[in-house]
Specification:
The complex is a heterodimer of chains A (210) and B (152).
Chain A: H1 16-30, E1 37-42, E2 63-68, E3 74-76, E4 79-81, H2 87-95, H3 103-111, H4 114-117, E5 134-140, H5 145-166, H6 171-175, H7 182-192, E6 199-205
Helix pairs in contact in A: 2-5, 5-7
Chain B: H1 19-33, E1 49-50, E2 54-55, E3 62-68, H2 73-76, E4 81-84, E5 87-89, H3 93-103, E6 114-119, H4 125-137, E7 142-146, E8 148-149
Parallel strand pairs in B: 1-8, 3-6, 6-7
Antiparallel strand pairs in B: 3-4, 4-5
The chains are: A alpha/beta (210), B alpha/beta (152).
């Protein structure tokens, strides 16, 4: 016989929110949202011990030298520098100098937007054209990682800003381009065409530190 | 005297019936995004801040190295150490570590391996340079300096 007339027992659900809150707080506390972000870099291949190191025939004017010593003092093109954030505009001016542009470089120059052309000073004492220009960055073993990252950040920032401006994006938007999508990959290639990211990170000196 | 008292019929209570649902929604969000750490980090980790960050596209190609002062300085000393997976390794051990990590990848992906190094910002460059040297030795040339976003 079916038991009729009896009320269905209702579970009191007023504490449901409390239970959910408790779980929520637990996950809030334990959560570390994955932060797989950082400055990317491709290291040069290992030098072949059988081959002598290549002669450096580069002209001094095509090298933008940054040295950092073990007490975190910065020397940029033989001048001391205290504010790291100045580096970005210095590097941009150096790359975009177009001092002695050959035909290819002149064509490249003509494709640049006005804002980048304006940075070109065509000075004799600075870089010939972007493909030749190299930013050389040398630290010491005693340099703190903090400064190293700050400088590398500025250097990469200078390049990304140039790339972005060429295709009408900000540096942030440029870095966000997804190369798996053909349209965005096309943009990426267009932005980098003729402008290699010539950042040379030399092996650190061994004056300070272990 | 005029009557000022107005009787409003609308109820002043906010209905809270949907509250558990909202909380559950938040709960699920955090449950899904949570990554429970596989290894405990035994070095101090205060990641430097930078602006020009890029995201890593393929997570399975990434291996992590943690560098910093050991948190347990009494046991391990105050010199910066390298941690891979669950243990401290010496500089020479990096080659073996990278080879092992490469072994987990398919043949065509082996050269694509990316090493993400999470270095504490008080560390000196010497140890970082050593790691890079070893990476070049085993032809693992993709490197990422882990950093967090700086708002400016």
């Amino acid at each position: 016989m079916a038991r009729s007339g009896r009320k269905l027992p209702a579970i009191n659900s007023s504490s449901m929110a409390d239970i959910a809150f408790l779980l929520l707080v637990f996950f809030l506390v334990t959560t570390t949202i994955a932060t797989d972000k950082g400055l990317t870099l491709t290291l040069p291949p290992k030098a072949d011990p059988n081959e002598p190191p290549p002669d450096i025939t580069k002209n001094q004017r095509n090298i933008f030298k940054i040295l950092v010593n073990s007490s975190d003092r910065i020397l940029v093109e033989d001048e001391p520098l205290t504010d790291v954030t100045e580096l970005r505009s210095m590097v941009k001016e150096f790359i975009l100098n177009f001092g002695k542009a050959d035909q290819d470089a002149q064509d490249l120059y003509n494709t640049l937007p006005q804002s980048l052309k304006a940075l070109s000073q065509q000075s004799e004492s600075s870089s010939d054209f972007p493909k030749e220009a190299v930013v050389s960055f040398k630290a010491d073993r005693g340099t703190s990682y903090d400064i190293y990252i700050a400088i590398l950040d500025e250097l990469q920032g200078a390049f990304y800003e140039i790339y972005g401006e060429r295709i009408g994006l900000t540096a942030d938007e440029f870095r966000g381009l997804d190369r798996k999508k053909p349209a965005e990959n096309e943009k990426y290639k267009k932005a980098r065409d003729g402008f290699p990211m010539n950042i040379s990170i030399a092996e650190p000196t061994k004056i300070g530190g272990n | 005297m005029a009557k000022f008292k107005k009787k409003s019929k609308t109820s002043q209570d906010i209905p809270t019936a949907a509250l558990p649902d909202i909380i559950f929604m938040l709960l699920f969000f955090f449950m899904v995004t949570t990554v429970l750490r596989e290894s405990t980090i035994m070095v101090k980790q205060s990641i430097p801040k930078a602006t020009q960050l890029r995201k890593l596209e393929q997570k399975k190609l990434v291996s992590y190295l943690y560098v910093g002062k050991p948190t347990d300085t009494k046991k391990f000393g105050a010199e910066p150490k390298i941690q891979a997976n669950d243990a401290f390794i010496e500089i020479e051990g990096i080659i073996q570590f990278i080879e092992e990590e490469k072994g987990k990848l398919a043949e065509n992906e082996k050269d694509q391996i990316t090493i993400s190094i999470k270095v504490d910002d008080e560390t000196k460059m010497g140890i970082v340079a050593d790691i890079q040297e070893k990476m070049r030795d085993v032809n693992a040339r993709k490197l990422m300096y882990a950093a967090s976003r700086r708002a400016d």
